Amino acid sequence: MKNEFIFAGAPYSNSAPLVDKLTEVDPRVRVFNDHPASLVRDLKAGRADVALIPVAHLFAHPELTMLKGLGVAADGPVRSVLLKCNKRMGHIKTVGRDPASATSNALAELLLKKHFKQKIEMHDFQSLENPDAAVVIGDRALCADPGPAGDIDLAEAWKKMTGLPFVFAVWAVRSDFPDIEAVTDIVHQAYAAGFQAMEEIAERFAGKLGGTTIFWLDYLDHSIHYKLDKQDLEGLNLFKKELSTSIKY
Ligand SMILES: C=C(O[C@@H]1C=C(C(=O)O)C=C[C@H]1O)C(=O)O
């Protein structure tokens, strides 16, 4: 058994209930944050043993294994994964990806092509000066004003299309990691403690980013959920299937 477990989370408030208490539940744990899109590289390079990776990267890397039971999910509007529209639906041709995201960029492309039946091109954020719409995730999306032609909440659109919740990110390890049981135990204990501390976490983000404690509590405790049930797994599997058949990502 290793004497140190390195965990990597995302720098968003929705990571906090999963990540905040990790070091308290086990003295072997060290934690750092990185953009979700970079976490798969951290895992593969051995900079992290356990990371909260975008599910799109989990699907693309069969050498990774998901830890069971927890993730960052939404059943209906998530409020922090948005397509911010400069033009109205029907006029959207170019879409900027959020450079920090993997899952939401793929979800936006899937929904625009399949659900909204638009002919669109996805572009890296920097390569496009004024996209017709842009994917924005995390606290930046949650706290921003709506785009000139409004916002589309991507978890809400997914729910309308499929009737299912959507899972954005899950804890994962390299499949040959020897202590899967030990770290699974740690993430569940940390979430149990994080859940108890939800109000304290909400207060901290209200102090840091503005808004009331109730606003953050509502987001972390209602818009997002962390315990994955059968429906969540159904949503996850359907997304995997849709990505493999409908779009390249
Ligand atoms: C719901 C969210 O989910 C995030 C979205 C991710 C993605 O698009 O790849 C990755 C990690 C999640 O934290 C959010 O941060 O707003």
Automatic annotation (TrEMBL):
Q: Write down what this protein is called.
A: Chorismate dehydratase
- Catalytic activity field: chorismate = 3-[(1-carboxyvinyl)-oxy]benzoate + H2O
List the HAMAP family: MqnA
E.C. number(s) listed in UniProt: 4.2.1.151
**A Pfam family per the record:** VitK2_biosynth
Q: Which residues form the signal peptide?
A: none
Keywords noted in UniProt: Lyase, Menaquinone biosynthesis
Q: In which pathway does it act?
A: Quinol/quinone metabolism; menaquinone biosynthesis
- Native organism: Pontiella sulfatireligans
Source species taxonomy: Bacteria, Pseudomonadati, Kiritimatiellota, Kiritimatiellia, Kiritimatiellales
**SUPFAM superfamilies, A to Z:** Periplasmic binding protein-like II (SSF53850)
